[in-house]
Amino acid sequence: MKQPGQSTRVSVDNSTPSEKPLKKGQLLDISIDSLSYGGEGVTRLNDGFVVLTNSVIPGEKVRVRIIKSKKNLAKGAVVERLEESHHYIPPKCPHVAPTGCGGCQSQHLEYLIQLSEKQKQVEYLFRDGMISGGVPQVEIIQGCEKIFGYRNKMEFSFGTREWLVNPPEKKSNDEEPNSEVTVQAPFILGLRPRGHFDKTLSIDACYLQHEQANQVLDYVRNRLMEVPSSVQAELRPYDNREHTGTLRNLAIRSAINTDGQLELMVNFVTSPQDVTHFLLQDIANALPQRIPEVKSVMQNMTESKGGATFGECGQKVLFGREYIEQDLLGYSFQISANSFFQTNPYQASVLYKEIQRHADLNGDEIVHDLFCGTGSIGICLAEKCRQVIGIELVESAVEDARRNAKRNNITNASFYADNLDKSSLIESLPKADVVVIDPPRAGCHPSLIKHLINTKPRKIVYVSCNPASQVRDIQLLSVDELYKLAKVSPVDMFPHTPHIESVVTLELHQH
Q1: How close are the terminal C-alpha atoms of the chain, in Å?
Q2: Cα distance between residue 312 and residue 329, in whole Å
Q3: What pLDDT score was predicted for residue 2?
Q4: Among 62, 158, 409, 499, which is disulfide-ready with 247 (CB 3.0 to 4.6 Å)?
Q5: CA gap 332, 326 in Å, rounded
Q6: Is the pTM for the entire model greater than 0.85?
Q7: Catalytic residue from among 144, 372, 444, 465
Q8: Which regions of 220-349 does DSSP assign to beta strands (E)?
């Protein structure tokens, strides 16, 4: 007989009908069919009922506890792993999901299967987006040759609340595993676990960044931990609850210059300081001697309470120059501490070739490069068109874009700082023949959509790291069949994560 507080366990073959709705707290044995956009495991029961589960991969069999349940959808939390997926591979990193930082959710899934799942997710988003005028066949996703060491930026966090992971011990069927503990510590350097803004998982290395960047991480940690407690007290990690302390983040950026050499930028993000603490300066002086690839050491200062690494209160050069250089498609780009650049420069060349193919310029077009960042897309298009006009919110990125155009001898590109959510500048620009947009994950503001509808550029090339918001915006642009969706090209920029980049072409419909 079931005792009070116990859960009912049901063994479910995915081909059998489910008890609808599933009850909160109910235990269920299920097989994972696929991954949803966002990385959740999907189990489809034959009556149409769907169970979503975090931290699983296709082919895996798990026991879950139902934590939410609606008419045709439930969410489950893994209680026990019953059978390993035949697509499972041993992860390179000990911190991979489900018990780690949450960054690499699928590092233990064969890469070809990761690509297959992402392909299906893009196809589903566009097929079910009900876009006017129909959807062309989604092109085959372009995968990465380099699936480790590809990230050119990692932001590590300083903290005092250490998030410890205890591998779940085998427990009875009705018990949930206890997989985390938080302890106070004077100093931690690592990553924020998913969903824990005030805790820090101490890590020795992240295999998504270059080995030399991991050497920087190791050296900085060791130097800060070996100093007397009195010095540590002067450089206390920032407390996200109490909003006190100095050390906030260690951001490490990397680039491959035109000579094929690795360059690193190390950026200490701190609360405002009139004078840089002597220990940070000592570390800045020592880093290039130990790791010659370090070409820049910066200090960004911020008062933000939201964990931002942008130095709105100023920045200092502690060593070297205030930028590193990245080669992309034969062009050289300066990357500063606050500027945006494609996070995977190896795959960025693949992405930018796709943008060139979608734009299909003949040499006489005026191109608007919206959300242009450091100008990399516009510069890669400039030699194929008459004029490029780029707009970007972050002024330091616009300054980088102007410098990048000059250093690459691009004379037909100009860049301006403006907020595209409420831009008056864009209305005064020469009419665009082709518009390239690469907005943040949230997509385009309604005012920008309205501008595009009113000005009717011949072609819109929409680059997005969030196909869901991209589909929404395409729906708005396709009202009354104003634009026809001509191409959809997914590109995997971030192996082992649920993120997908998508390039689409919208062509003005000729009525």
Answers
A1: 71
A2: 32
A3: 42
A4: 158
A5: 6
A6: yes
A7: 465
A8: 247-256, 262-270, 294-301, 315-320, 323-328, 331-336
Residue with tokens 């050069």: 317
H or E stretch at 402: helix 395-407
In whole angstroms, how far apart are CA 76 and each of 22, 170, 181, 219?
A: 10, 19, 22, 41
Q: What is the pLDDT of residues 221-235, one digit of tens each?
A: 999 988 888 888 888
| Band of pLDDT at residue 173, cut at 50, 70 and 90 | very low
CA distance 279 to 273: 13
Q: Is 465 a catalytic residue?
A: yes
Given phi > 0 = left and psi -120 to 50 = alpha, else beta, which region is 480? left
Nearest Cα to Cα of residue 485 among 128, 136, 130, 119? 136
Q: How many other β-carbons are positioned within 10 Å of the β-carbon of residue 117?
A: 23
Task: Give residue 14's identity as a one-letter amino acid code.
Answer: N
d(CA 301, CA 273) in angstroms, rounded, equals 7
Query: Helices (DSSP H) in 6-150: which residue ranges?
Result: 111-127
Q: Give the DSSP H/E element, type plus range, for residue 454.
A: helix 446-455
Cα separation, 303 vs 293, whole angstroms: 30
- What is the identity of the amino acid at 311? G
> What contacts 24+ positions apart, CB below 8 Å, involve 122-131?
122/467, 122/488, 122/490, 122/500, 122/502, 124/37, 125/37, 125/467, 125/468, 125/471, 126/467, 126/471, 126/485, 126/488, 129/471, 129/472, 129/474, 129/475, 130/475, 131/471, 131/474, 131/475, 131/478, 131/485
